[in-house]
Amino acid sequence: MRFAFCFFDRLPSTNTKAMTMDPWSAVVAETQTRGRGRFDRSWSSGKGGAWFSLVLPLGEHPAELTFLASLAVYRVLRRMGMDVSIKWPNDLVHCHLKVCGILTENRYGQRDGKSVIGIGLNVNNKLPPSLQSKAASLKSLVGKSLPLNAIIRDIAGEFAKVYSIYTQKGFSPLLKEWKKACSTLGKDITVASIGGRFSGKAVGVDPQCRLLVKDAAGKIRIVTEGDIRILCRENVP
Ligand code: BT5
Questions:
Q1: Digits of tens for pLDDT over the chain (237 positions)?
Q2: Which residue's CA is the nearest one to ligand 1's atom 2?
Q3: How far, in Å, CA of 149 to CA of 15, rounded?
Q4: Regarding the domain delimited by 188-231, which CATH topology (the fold level of the hierarchy) does it fall under?
Q5: How many C-beta atoms surround the C-beta of residue 188 within 10 A?
């Protein structure tokens, strides 16, 4: 299957618009006025970035769709020679700088059920000062502007390939590839989730896409949601 693209100059959020559209639509906006991340956090969406949403038939497992999308973005950026990796659960990073975030949302319903995968990738856009120490654009990594629409189309095409493997062979071969692309595994991290904050070592991801973290007492804790901070030399004061 291929995505049918709709382009807009400006939208509140491509995810909100995509919820009104049929599966296999792709909604792209030059800017978003109310771009959002997880937990309704705001997503900076200035001109020059790739802000788009892919509409799919309703999937039972939103976390799997997020993983498929991060794998598609990873493959495309790697082919472009970018030094990026996946950070659990929904980011692509260069070192500790976030270049891409993904937000998957579901609408349940027998007739109009669907899943929407929102992808926000900093390509040529400027980031506000508040994000400059934790985010980066691809342009800042390579020192030149990149072809925005070609990158969006490549990612959508790559996602369609990954999704077709998913429907034919299941999630497990893709999870295996995802784990190889993930830089969180094996690292000392801090987890901040609704349940609280703790530190430990990221030791695995289970088949439900949950992060397995060994805490200071040696107990394996299962993390379903939240933010993680990787403790590496440049993060330690
Ligand atoms: C995400 O949330 O990373 C998911 C972002 C999804 C954005 C896309 S754009 C197209 C579609 N339409 C939408 O409305 N959304 C999707 P989360 O993990 O919660 O990260 C949010 C946090 O990332 C914010 O609280 C900021 O700290 C940071 N942030 C905001 N804008 C950013 C940007 N452009 N680049 C990097 N980090 C950003």
A1: 899 999 999 999 999 999 999 999 999 999 999 999 999 999 999 999 999 999 999 988 989 999 999 999 999 999 999 999 999 999 999 999 999 999 999 999 878 899 999 999 999 999 999 999 999 999 999 999 999 999 999 999 999 999 999 999 999 999 999 999 999 999 999 999 888 899 999 999 999 999 999 999 999 999 999 899 988 654 443
A2: 37
A3: 18
A4: SH3 type barrels. (2.30.30)
A5: 16
| Amino acid at residue number 85 | S
The domain ranges of the chain are: 4-181, 188-231
- pTM assigned to the model: 0.96
CA of 169 to the centre of ligand 1 (A): 31
Ligand 1: nearest atom to the Cα of 45: 34
Which of 42, 140, 136, 126 lies closest to 97, judged by CA? 136
